[in-house]
Design goal:
6hp_glycosidase-like_sf, 6-hairpin_glycosidase_sf, about 40% helix, hydrolase, Glycoside hydrolase family 65 protein, Maltose phosphorylase, domain 3, Glyco_hydro_65_C, 11 helices, about 280 residues
Length: about 280
């Protein structure tokens, strides 16, 4: 899927560039029309693997692996985040089982919106329905040990709308991962900067529901009950925008500037925002 996305982005860039810059780039990289046509062809012919029940397979043959006895191991060892080390100590390997250290397939729902993912699947000739998302989340979250601090970030993100309580629990785990040394001894070796940045990103993008599509800044807030309000500043297309979200309202205050107005949307309500203006949305 990610390979297809790279090809799609490359093709879009070439289509978007002015003619002179397009020629300069293709000549500099020695890109021939035939190669560019191959990119388009490959981006429509990559093969995805699914289980019989429609689950996106982590890799071909994943559905043939053994189920792992999570309950027994959790009763015996407590935390099984580093399942790889536990199994190696028993002369076993996680490669035999349907288990993951961190999000793999679920990264798709972390990186792409449902619409974006649907477009990629349709380009490849595969059907994509919204029900695909919660179905895959439920399947893989039961088979993940969270052996990486980044795992809590990814799973918190994908659960933002379907299970806010679990999303918040995973978020706080990621937030406290180094303070509590949840991996048992890694904190003295250094902090997990990726997880720290991920927790900030969750607040800024996941809980605000920010997307930029079709030249529109789209927001669809979904605050957990533990967060009563959220305020932050955005930089978008030369504008500096103060965003404030409560349970019932979302306010965007645009600082004075001399650049073109931007388009802002909440659900189907799309508006124009100019420098020095403030707009307010009633949240559903």
């Amino acid at each position: 899927v990610m390979a297809v996305w790279v090809f799609i982005c490359a093709l879009k860039v070439l289509d978007t560039l002015p003619r002179d810059r397009h020629r300069e780039l293709t000549e500099g990289l020695d890109l021939q029309d035939e190669e560019i046509r191959k990119w388009d062809h490959i981006s429509r012919r990559m093969r995805l693997v699914f289980h019989d029940d429609g689950i996106i397979s982590q890799f071909e043959g994943y559905d043939q692996l053994e189920e792992f006895d999570w309950q027994s191991y959790q009763e015996k060892y407590g935390r099984v985040m580093r399942l790889d080390r536990i199994l190696e100590a028993e002369n076993d390997t996680p490669n035999r089982y349907k288990c993951s250290k961190q999000g793999d397939v679920l990264m798709l729902f972390y990186l792409f919106s449902a619409d974006e993912l649907g477009e990629i699947f349709e380009r490849l000739g595969y059907p994509f329905e919204y029900e695909t998302i919660p179905k895959n989340i439920e399947y893989y979250i039961q088979r993940t040990s969270h052996g990486s601090t980044l795992s809590q970030v990814v799973h918190s993100w994908v659960l933002t709308r379907s299970d806010r309580a679990e999303s918040w629990e995973l978020y706080t785990m990621a937030l406290r991962s180094d303070i509590d040394d949840i991996q048992g001894g890694t904190t003295p070796e250094g902090i997990h900067l990726g997880a720290m940045a991920g927790t900030v990103d969750l607040i800024q993008r996941a809980y605000t529901g920010i997307e930029t599509r079709g030249e529109v800044l789209r927001l669809n807030p979904c605050l957990p009950k533990e967060i009563r309000s959220l305020c932050l500043r955005l930089r978008y297309r030369g504008h500096s925008v103060d965003l404030s979200i409560t349970r019932k309202k979302m306010t965007l205050q645009c600082h004075e500037c001399r650049v073109e107005p931007i388009k802002v949307a909440y659900c189907e309500d799309e508006r124009r925002l100019c420098g020095g203006e403030t707009i307010e949305f009633d949240l559903k």
